[in-house]
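anyone seen this seq b4? input:
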Amino acid sequence: MKFTHAIVRPPGRSFVNGLSTANLGAPDWESALRQHAAYVQALKTCGLLVTVLPPDDDYPDSTFVEDTALLTPACAIILRPGAPSRRGETESIEPVVKTFYTDIEHIHAPGTVDGGDVMMAGNHFFIGLSQRTNREGAEQILAILTDRGMTGSLVPLGNILHLKSAIAYVENQTVVASRELSTRPEFGVYRMIQIDSAEQYGANCLWINGTVLVPAGYPKAESAIIAAGYRTIVLDTSEFRKLDGGLSCLSLRF
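predicted toks r here
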């Protein structure tokens, strides 16, 4: 699949108050801005037209735009994030999505879905069942996809926050996965690039038009991806990691 567009939102000053289970300390807002700008430049280098939304200080986690919508080749789905404090983020995302899509669906209560739990692999979508994405929300996603000729399946998760925290589809029937997910039967049909447990965060990489964006500080993960035949761009995401975020979280790509 070739991507042509991305939607991003720089972190606002309230970013330092975002949700976190990482125990890595509070993020530095100015450093996060620099890291986000480098991320946007990387998206452009990969050929994407990037829509940059204004920061939204009402929602500290709003830079993680991926959790608000699922943009498929056939339709857009406005999601319902699992954290109650984030549900208002979708109100400002939907008008932007409507400039690109006419077929738009919504996830309804009591369903919850974070975009970080949905991994697109060609015409198939893996949906992680997590603390943020419940079965009701996942079943709504499956119904929407099926109506439009796509397929999906559910992946129960353990201690992983989001499915894509530990696995990424990098096209060419290949996934990059942490040790915890690399042996799961759901992914047995794919070529596997296994990431060492000590570098699990490196599995949250991002394929865009032949190049894989990789977080800085995970040299074994990067080496494994390069050895599999991919070009890479290394990006510092240290401030976003402090709020459980990574490369995929920071954009909506379509």
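The CA atoms of residues 99 and 215 lie 31 Å apart. The longest helix spans residues 29-45. kinda curious what u guys think
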